[in-house]
Design brief:
homodimer; alpha+beta; 4 helices; DNA-binding; eight-stranded mixed sheet; about 200 residues; Arc Repressor Mutant, subunit A
DNA sequence: CTTTAATGAATACAAATGTATGCTAATATA
DNA sequence: TATATTAGCATACATTTGTATTCATTAAAG
C-alpha cells in the first residue's frame, strides 16, 4: 500500500476498530489488514499495538479478536426497554403486540425491571408531564409519599402522584381540572414508579 | 458434568452468551465449555448449534467467536452523548472537564452531532421544561419557526423558542415572568435545536 | 541534504479456536 | 420396563488468528 502521512492510516484504523467494536464484532488483525489493503499482517499489528500504546485501545493478549476500547471510552452500557402503547387492565405482561418500540436507558439498575408508557391526557401537566411524553417506569408494588406512580384503579391504569392524608391513600392528579381519588385499599394496585420522563420535540 | 434436566444447561448457556455479546465480548466455544465446566468442547458446540437451530443465536461459520444474537433481538444500537454541565460562552467545544456524564440515545441519527445540557432556571416552564431537566440538542446553525433552540446572545447561552415577527427574529421564553428578546441579526448565534427533554424523578 | 524514526512488506511459526467422528449414559415418554 | 432422544465425553484434525524476525522504503525533522 502506498504510504500516507504519519498517523493517518492509524487514525483511520482506530475509527474502523471502534465501529466494529460498537457493533459487537471485534475484528481480527487480518481483517484490519484486509480492510486497509495492507499487504502484511504485521503492518496492521504494529498499528493496532501502537493504538494500545497510545491508550486508545486495550488488548487481551493471545486470544482471537482481543482488541477492545479503553475502559473510559466505554462510558456505560445501555439496555433497551420496551415502550408500551397502552396498558391492558389487569396484567402488565409485556406481550409483544403492545410494544411500540424500544428506547435506551443507562444500565445502572441491573436487576430491576423497567418499561415505558406513552402519556395520555393532561392530568399531570402541573408536574410538567405532557400528553405524548414517555414515562419510564420501574416495576414495584409500593410507593412513598410524593412518588409519581402508575396505578391500577377499577381496572384502569393511570399516572398519579401518590400521597397520604391522615393515613389514607390519595392519588392526586396534577391538574386542577381533575379531582384526587381516595381509593379503598383493596381497590387499587401500584404497578410501578415513574423514574424518568422523556419528550421528543420536532 | 452431571446431567441436568433437558434444556436447562442450554438455557443458561444462552443467557451467558447473551450477556457476553452485550458487553461486546463474544465467547469462543471453549470459553462456554469452561464457564459451564463441561469436559468436552463438543458438548458446548452442540448446545450452541442447537441454539442456532432454535433461532436464538446466529453464527458466522469458520471464524473465531462467531456466535451472535439473532437480528431481531438486537432491537437497536445506542450511542452515548455527553451531558455538559455548563456552556462556556463562545465556543461549544466539548472539553472533557465540562462533561458531567453520558446518556444513551437511540442511534438513528448516525451522522448528526448530539449533546445534552442541564436546564437552569424556569424560563421554559410553559413548555413543560423544568429546571434540572436534561435537554438533548442537535447541533445546527439555523432553526425553523417554533423550534426550541439553544442560542447564544451577548455571549450567554440560553434556551428559547425561536420565532419570527414580521421578518424579525424573536427569542421567546415560555414564562410570562420573562420578556422576549429581539436580537440584532449579528448579535446572536444558534447553537442547536432541542430535540428531546428528559427528567429524572426520585 | 542527511539522519532518524515511522511505515509497509515477506515469511515463518505457535497458539487459539472451529469442526468432525464415535462413544457412553441419563432423561423423558410411551 | 423398553425405547428414543438428549446430554455429555474423548480425541483428533483443520483452520483461523496472534506473534516474531528481518528487511526495504519513505515521511518528517534538523
Amino acid at each position: 500500500m502506498k504510504r500516507g502521512p504519519r498517523g493517518k492510516t492509524r487514525y483511520e484504523i482506530f475509527a474502523y476498530v471502534k465501529s466494529r467494536l460498537k457493533e459487537g464484532n471485534p475484528p481480527t488483525i487480518r481483517e484490519v489488514q484486509e480492510a486497509f489493503h495492507l499487504k502484511s499482517v504485521q503492518t496492521a499489528r504494529v498499528h493496532l499495538n501502537t493504538l494500545v500504546k497510545e491508550n486508545k485501545l486495550m488488548k487481551i493478549p493471545g486470544i482471537a479478536r482481543g482488541y477492545r476500547l479503553t475502559k473510559d471510552r466505554h462510558a456505560a452500557q445501555a439496555t433497551f426497554i420496551p415502550v408500551l402503547g397502552n396498558v391492558h387492565a389487569g396484567d402488565l405482561n409485556l406481550a409483544c403486540e403492545e410494544i411500540e418500540c424500544y428506547i435506551p436507558v443507562n444500565q445502572q439498575h441491573t436487576n430491576v425491571e423497567l418499561f415505558a408508557l406513552r402519556i395520555e391526557g393532561d392530568s399531570m401537566i402541573g408536574q410538567g408531564i405532557l400528553p405524548g411524553d414517555t414515562a419510564i417506569i420501574r416495576k414495584q408494588p409500593s410507593a412513598a409519599k410524593g412518588d409519581i406512580v402508575v396505578v391500577l384503579v377499577e381496572g384502569e391504569a393511570s399516572i398519579k402522584t401518590y400521597d397520604t392524608d391522615n393515613g389514607k391513600i390519595v392519588l392526586r392528579p396534577e391538574n386542577p381540572k381533575y379531582d384526587p381519588i381516595y381509593p379503598d385499599s383493596d381497590r387499587y394496585r401500584i404497578l410501578g414508579k415513574v423514574i424518568e420522563i422523556r419528550r421528543c420535540l420536532g
